[in-house]
Amino acid sequence: MTHLVYPGATHSRFQHTIGCMHLISAAINTLQQKGFSITDEESEAVHAAILMHDLGHAPFSHVLESTLVKKITHEEISLLFMERLNKEFNGKLSMAIEIFKNRYPKRFLHQLISGQLDMDRLDYLRRDSFYTGVSEGVVSSDRIIKMLTLHNDELVVEAKGIYSIEKFLIARRLMFWQVYLHKTALVSEKMLNKTVKRAAYIASKKGDTGAPGTLEFFLKTDKESIDFKNDPQVLNNFAMLDDNDIMSALKIWSYSEDKVLSWLSNALLNRKLLAIEIEKDKFTKNHIHQLREIAVKELSLTYSESKYFVFTDTIENNAYNIFDDKIKILFKNSRVKDISQASDILNLSVLSKTVRKNILCYPKNINEQ
Amino acid sequence: MTHLVYPGATHSRFQHTIGCMHLISAAINTLQQKGFSITDEESEAVHAAILMHDLGHAPFSHVLESTLVKKITHEEISLLFMERLNKEFNGKLSMAIEIFKNRYPKRFLHQLISGQLDMDRLDYLRRDSFYTGVSEGVVSSDRIIKMLTLHNDELVVEAKGIYSIEKFLIARRLMFWQVYLHKTALVSEKMLNKTVKRAAYIASKKGDTGAPGTLEFFLKTDKESIDFKNDPQVLNNFAMLDDNDIMSALKIWSYSEDKVLSWLSNALLNRKLLAIEIEKDKFTKNHIHQLREIAVKELSLTYSESKYFVFTDTIENNAYNIFDDKIKILFKNSRVKDISQASDILNLSVLSKTVRKNILCYPKNINEQ
Amino acid sequence: MTHLVYPGATHSRFQHTIGCMHLISAAINTLQQKGFSITDEESEAVHAAILMHDLGHAPFSHVLESTLVKKITHEEISLLFMERLNKEFNGKLSMAIEIFKNRYPKRFLHQLISGQLDMDRLDYLRRDSFYTGVSEGVVSSDRIIKMLTLHNDELVVEAKGIYSIEKFLIARRLMFWQVYLHKTALVSEKMLNKTVKRAAYIASKKGDTGAPGTLEFFLKTDKESIDFKNDPQVLNNFAMLDDNDIMSALKIWSYSEDKVLSWLSNALLNRKLLAIEIEKDKFTKNHIHQLREIAVKELSLTYSESKYFVFTDTIENNAYNIFDDKIKILFKNSRVKDISQASDILNLSVLSKTVRKNILCYPKNINEQ
Amino acid sequence: MTHLVYPGATHSRFQHTIGCMHLISAAINTLQQKGFSITDEESEAVHAAILMHDLGHAPFSHVLESTLVKKITHEEISLLFMERLNKEFNGKLSMAIEIFKNRYPKRFLHQLISGQLDMDRLDYLRRDSFYTGVSEGVVSSDRIIKMLTLHNDELVVEAKGIYSIEKFLIARRLMFWQVYLHKTALVSEKMLNKTVKRAAYIASKKGDTGAPGTLEFFLKTDKESIDFKNDPQVLNNFAMLDDNDIMSALKIWSYSEDKVLSWLSNALLNRKLLAIEIEKDKFTKNHIHQLREIAVKELSLTYSESKYFVFTDTIENNAYNIFDDKIKILFKNSRVKDISQASDILNLSVLSKTVRKNILCYPKNINEQ
Q1: So what CATH class is C183-316+361-368?
Q2: CATH number of the structural domain D11-181
Q3: Å from C140 to nearest chain B CA?
Q4: Which CATH code, of 3.40.30.10, 1.10.3210.10, 1.10.10.10, 3.30.450.20, is assigned to C8-181+323-353?
Q5: CA torsion, points C114, C115, C120, C124, in degrees to nearest 10?
Q6: What is the ipTM, given to two decimal places?
């Protein structure tokens, strides 16, 4: 929903995927030129792997990730797609899948598609910063890729690239707060999430919501029992689903007899967003209760329905946590240091700490009463 | 459908509209600085007019323009929206509407939103060239705007801007052939048009196609009798319609029992496009008949159905004709010359001639048989 | 002197030369990928040739070209440098020299460094447009290079590149009038030329002008008798000469006892430029005579000295004439057409005509008297 | 000498000065829009002040700063120029001078031209990063300026600009090590410094070095006794001096009878640079002595002369120290925090520490003997 804040941000996952493949090419090239052996077959496999790595995303990706389906991550769904494609291609994707699953011996190939400095991040930071116009998020992916090398079959960065890494981490932090967690985008995403949850509730209780067929399928089905592995039709339906269906459904839902669903859908379509507050401390139960009481009165809701309008949540930047594994810097004497030790300027212990914040959403104007 | 050729071209009409408004501001500024009187009210009105000038576009604009509705242009629908908004705003948009309809005395205000050098063209040429990456289409809108001035209340260009105008016309021609009429975009758009026509046929004969409600409304309604003016619900429904509904419908239609509808929808979704040929001369009836015969056999169609797969059409660049009115150049001695006389280098009689070409589409591979 | 108009235009010949080499690489690559045979030796030779092609330029190139030395072109001097370098490199540059002299069998290699679409032009148009900020002069060198191919061992352009060529020619025309022949740059260059001519006159009559040694050498020497071929010291001195010496000399000359030399030097240093008029028709002898008479009085000059302050000249764009040889377009049926026939839009007979204009310079303000 | 490493870096101080003035305009605008009072006269004065702030730089600025003249800083010379200009303009520059000297009551006006976040730094970081192509040094001057505000008449940054400031400091550090202290630029600058010192030595001992007149003036004059204030001719001569004179002189000196002067000049002209080592620890006297001994033998020098070829120096980034005064961040509750406390991520105590390094230069190849 970032385009509500930055109207230029209408770029697609398809563009991102092509971009990732382009960066993989550059990285493979750099490593080969530095004398590391990567066969043509391996190169093709890692290209294929990154082309497929995001196939499992739901519409609006993270926003609806655990709403439409549950107990399965988007990586697992990506893998299911890869396996089905592998059958169609008579096993030609086997090596790509090994790399994706991190079971291939040359571990750095996996690190190129998933790791601290993977091509995915390099592409999306640069692309998002370009299309939002937040020029400060620009990361010099070219230069970082040229500084990549291997040490014990692991991806590391040459010492002279240390300033570029510092800038990469700072730019990431800036994009995180200025774009990915921008208040307006955040509240819209939460509202979209609530809307789809309400539609699923209606679908399970009362039947059709009028949404396009494949979307209705996931709304109706008991989330707990969705079985991607045993029923091939589930994956088929998932493949047919995209953002257009959600947007189209919102317009249908805006005429729904269910007051909650129509209110939320209309609000999203006409940009009448809820108010949002972000605080370090938890909001008190009492405060939330009071807001729900007012909402009940103002919008003529049941108390139970008011939870779609007044709600809290937590956000944390560990979705962007930088310490799954380490960014390693290679010095001339062949010693490798963690970036947290190599950089004397960045307080990485702070950077790595999970920042958890509380958000509170409620209909505009009611807080003053 | 240009994004099938240039994946970066996912920019929206909203961005374009904001861009137009930005250029209008610059143009108003330039004219005021050159001493021409434009009141604050007039400035606001022309800003409002350009913000609303494209409201009447159907989804996929020109592609479906006369398919979903008939006997009414998108300009007329824009005007209906403006008039409804004017009521809501208690007449505050009256001057904007006068300007849009070219009934306002200062005619140059209308020329800024609709004319040979209007801000609409300056914005879309530059924007489309930016997002497609066809950098040669870049038009220096900044400089052209700085060269604008008035002569007898008409928009004219200062003589020293003549090279910029030459470049503008050449860039336009380049964008026309390289982007707007690119073969792949063209055939996709023709197919989309045929698909929606087939859906309308089904809707009129057999009832529901399963498309989202407001789309279904326009499919079902007899095009000839659609009455925007007397039935306010028509405009309401039109306002709810956008590209998402078409994309969502294609996925539903891909499961249709109607073979034609499902074949075309699937073809668009999976990029299995028809073959396309573009020629100066008309294709012979005999040749077309033969192709239809083969299609009938290959795809098990009735002869009548084959017209959705084998068809001709004409394209002309007079949609982009540059000679509705003239681009006038103002020389130092206050004489005004038409650009066609002012430029000694461009053969504008050629540029102005309508180029009409014939296209022929048919399923791939069948022509060789 | 273009930086007097466009302050960003401080780029150097060195940058341009590296740029040319970069474009040659791209062009060689494109041709090889299209299946044409170019050996490694040939590739190296054409790289070397373009690196050296401009070595023979005098300081401020065309401005002082026939002032410091005479009866020898900058291409001939470039060749002398190449031959001397070839000795130092034990003949390794022989093939590069053959290509430069257009004596190498594969003629297209020469066309890449000197011809209608050579890499020299592609680089300087783009570079000059970038550094002046005249963004409309931008030429899509990338795309033009990708459209290059061979036909009978000659460089030709694929038919689908025709719009790019049209734009190249229009951009060139725009740069020509907006940058290269900009009034202010033009008058400064004429004044610089006059200043150096006066210094040469002083040097020949009265001895030292105080200029740096190698510059003084060329000022003092009888231009007619300068012999690059027989006296190796001449080439040595020429190699030592660059723009810095001229700029440094201007400051010394600004203190000269010779009134003409000090006046002109001061005028250039402090941007007190002469007035300039540009007309199609010749200025009358009578008018010029009158201006010289006034200058004599106002600046206390002899009549003979006044020719440094009041003078005419002609400029023609045939320095940029595009019809030395032809730009050839290759159509699918292997037929080759001249761009003048292939483009229906550009009036190339006009574009190719030599435009000759007359300029008149004189001290500011005196014309009104 | 940075252009030896980054050939695009040929931009001039003139461009930089215009750029600073442009940023001042933007900053003044921003502050006025936020409701702070700045009169037209004050605005003009601060524009004038920044236009003149760098007038006192010697050729090659810091490289030759204390070589050509001594006991006077470039700021003091700038002030002398301003005062002379103020006389010519009948006192119209008095307020500009007050601001420059930080004697004007509204202190923030001075801070805009000299301080932690002055327009000078914003311009040169961005400009240098643009022209070198070190894109990572890009600073978002636009955004930083928009975040500026006042608190107690002091320039402060709004809290939401904190990430931009972090990025500014990191970018600065990157430019510092990757550009300003690049090894090759550094050794060239040290060599240029030594060359001019040698020329001054020759000039004082033996008379003329053949350099252009105004340069010779500063070479010959006893540095200690140069008196800018009492002898107006000194300032005149200084005004006439620029980089061209140094470059022109190098070519003359390359023919000098003095072996040291000609060797160094030739080395600079032909890019035969000395070797350079950079270490945290001091180089031992013994090691230096040995190198000098070898240089004496290899290059046939006296021991005293060898100090021009083998020498040490220290570099420190406190020329770029960021803690003269503080960058202050303004929070919503009107509290002001130092950036070092406001940022939890940057270890500013490290960033502020003076890093002092030792460099050792010597003729290439001799160290291995």
Answers
A1: mainly alpha
A2: 1.10.3210.10
A3: 6
A4: 1.10.3210.10
A5: 150
A6: 0.91
